[in-house]
Specification:
Blueprint lengths: L17 E5 L13 E6 L2 H14 L7 E5 H4 L9 E6 L4 H20 L5 E6 L2 E4 L11
Helix pairs in contact: 1-3
Length: 140
């Protein structure tokens, strides 16, 4: 089990109505390789959808990433023949940086459109977050 790597204090008036986390090691199929993406949103539904989409964007073409068609893992999957992540081996620092960069670009776009409030992305022991824009509390 991963160790707690931070905490968050939310004050009234921040606009946060939901928090959600998604990643490749969850209970659902993933198109990306993020260990986790946590999103603060104006609603739980928005945070959940954004966390999934941002986690899918944390990705890189690498021989360390194993994928299979979703249908091969679950014949009833609505993802059909889309390739889903099965395992992620050792990634180079450049691959980790590229994958997290792709996810951050998606998160920045969503925040710019007002779809999310904040996001933190994790992959292979590395963490990236959006620059602080609201007084959401202390992150350590």
């Amino acid at each position: 089990m991963p160790a707690l790597n931070g905490d968050l204090s939310l004050a009234a008036g921040t606009g946060v109505g939901g928090i959600a986390t998604s990643g490749a090691r969850g209970r659902s199929f993933s198109l990306g390789i993020a260990d986790s993406v946590t999103v603060l949103g104006r609603s739980a539904a928005n945070a959940d959808a954004a966390a999934t989409l941002i986690a899918n964007a944390v990705d890189v073409a690498s021989t360390a990433v194993s994928r299979r068609p979703a249908r091969a893992l679950d014949p009833d999957s609505d993802l059909g023949d889309r390739l889903v992540t099965v395992s992620v081996g050792a990634l180079s620092p450049a691959e980790i940086d590229a994958a997290l960069g792709a996810g951050l670009a998606r998160a920045e776009s969503y925040r710019g459109q007002g779809l999310i409030i904040d996001a933190v992305l994790m992959l292979a022991g590395e963490t990236r977050g959006l620059p602080a824009s609201l007084p959401l509390g202390q992150r350590r």
